Amino acid sequence: MHTTLKLALRSLWNRRTTAVLTVSAIAISVALLLSVQLLRTAARESFANTVSGVDLIVGARSGPLNLLLYSVFRVGDATANVSWASYQKIAHHPDVAWTIPISLGDSHRGFRVMGTDASYFEHYRFAGGRALKFSTGAPFADLYDAVLGSDVAKTLGYRVGDAIIVAHGLGNVSFAEHKDKPFRVAGILAPTGTPVDRTVHVSLQAITAIHIDWQTGMQAPEHYRVSAEQARSRDLTPATITAFLVGMRSRVMTFTMQRAINEYRQEPLLAVLPGIALSQLWELVGVADSALAVIAAFVVLAGLLGMLTAILTSLNERRREMAILRSVGARPGHIFSLLVLEAGILALVGVIGGTLLTYCLLFAGRPLLEHQFGIFVQVHALSGWEWSILAAIIASALLLSLLPAFRAYRNTLSDGLQMRV
Amino acid sequence: MSAAAIDLQNVEFSWPSGARVLAIPQLTIQPRERVFLHGPSGSGKSTLLGIVGGIFQPQAGHVHVLGTSLTRLSGAARDRFRGEQIGFIFQMFNLIPYLSVLENVLLPLGFSAGRAQRMGGADAPAEAKRLLSSLGLSEAGVSQRRVTDLSVGQQQRVAAARALIGRPPILVADEPTSSLDAQIQADFLRLLMTECMSHGTTLLFVSHDLTMAPKFDRTIRIRDINRAAAPTF
Fold first, then answer.
1. Are B96 and A416 a contacting pair at CB < 8 A?
2. Tens digits of residue pLDDT in A154-204
3. Which residue of A321, A328, A335, A336 is the best one to mutate when testing the B interface, meaning the one whose CB has the most B CBs within 10 A?
4. Taking the model in full, what pTM does it have?
5. Does residue A324 belong to the interface with chain B, where contact is any CB pair within 8 Å?
6. A333 in contact with B at a CB cutoff of 8 Å?
7. Is A405 left (phi over 0), alpha (psi -120 to 50) or beta?
């Protein structure tokens, strides 16, 4: 075994150009497969981390996915609102520990504006229980204060104290703006890797205030308008909100409360469990990433077939080498194991190289992933599943090498001690 | 009486295509004998060496080497037997190009425990260097050189050292000198003979060049022993 291993290494070194190319092909394909695998895990975690510690999400009756998408991911729109009265009733139920109201519908230069209250900064959790933190400033104190997500501040270059104008409706370019009631940036949140980063937060009262003189998407004529200062003295209790998040005093009560809300008589409401809704949504999104994994697996197969080709091609020019080995006492079994070993070494080096490459890419690409896609990639050691993938790649290489090994074995038997050219 | 080094009785060998290449009623070579086997190319010499080495199995007859019946051994056992008992030198391209001179010489020891044992615990690299220098490759650093940097004559000496390491009782040389010029040929033969004599090695030397025959104990013409030998043109 020792002699065969040494021969395999020396022989590969002798053909190092081909060997390096083969190893590179395997390494690149392994890196692709591992990256896809790690990104899948990271994306899934990131996805599941969007909201945590919330027991129920409540909105007007639509579908669970729709509710999850607009309340947590800020995607799509609500079809109806929740009345303030119903919200108050549920919020004050003895089993309810806290609620976070959400009022959507306006935007600022492509970023959504969300009306909420102080409980948001207190109770909202993401990524397994992390609380929101301010990188600068503080929660809103004045009516016209806004708190920006980190992406909003970074992309638009805002600092605390800057004035911003909220546009009516959604979209990048808006012709209807709440120009008469500008906001002041009161605080900027630390990055979370969730849709929070891309949200402009204001108080519920501010949402009411900027719409106080609006009717069906249009501002009232000049002489009916209410100025920013006049609005302060009005009753700014909202008539409706878009949705709200609920934290229960005891988890045990969650299902009872969910049923109670879904059967609420005064208004058609829908309460969903965030965990279940998230996994339903992931099933939908996950198809694409499974397809990606299948493609990556095929790339690995292509890499291994490249190795097989390289070994098979080398066999003919190595017939003499095999005959010499036979004449000095190598048995056909030695020749067989020599070729299996060579394939094993190529695959092993390829797999190690691919793993190193993956981690290098991961370290280099982490900031980009975080900024562009809001995916936090936690660089951790390979999981059991990833180890078994790597082992499977090496096993496949050994399996494939049986073909050239058997060929060499047969050549060896027919060539005898001298190769007849 | 001690067993013959090589003993063939009524051996017949044909290729799978049906062409009969060997039909040898009898061939006996005694231990320590140095035999010159003469024959033109295509007369079945290499096939005969394959049979002696246990690579090919004859369809009929008995082959005994050092008292062991090769025809009764399994393929793996014949391989092991060859590795232990017989050293081979061929006409050209004897060496593994990606190993150094020393590594080439030591190669048989890696495959055959028997050869390593026979050296009785002697330092293998030292023994390899001794063989190389007694075969005229004594210059410093030669053992670390790449074999592809050596002349053909030097390569054949390395091949001889490799065939002799671990003192196999039998040495088979198949046209080892035919690619060498006359002076180097004579040197090579002299060194090989000396080495075989000092260790009591049985030598089976094959060549088509009869001028070397007088240096051997006995000359056998393959035409005389092989009834299947094709007529030469």
1. no
2. 989 999 999 998 888 766 556 677 878 889 999 999 988 788 988 999 999
3. A328
4. 0.73
5. yes
6. yes
7. alpha
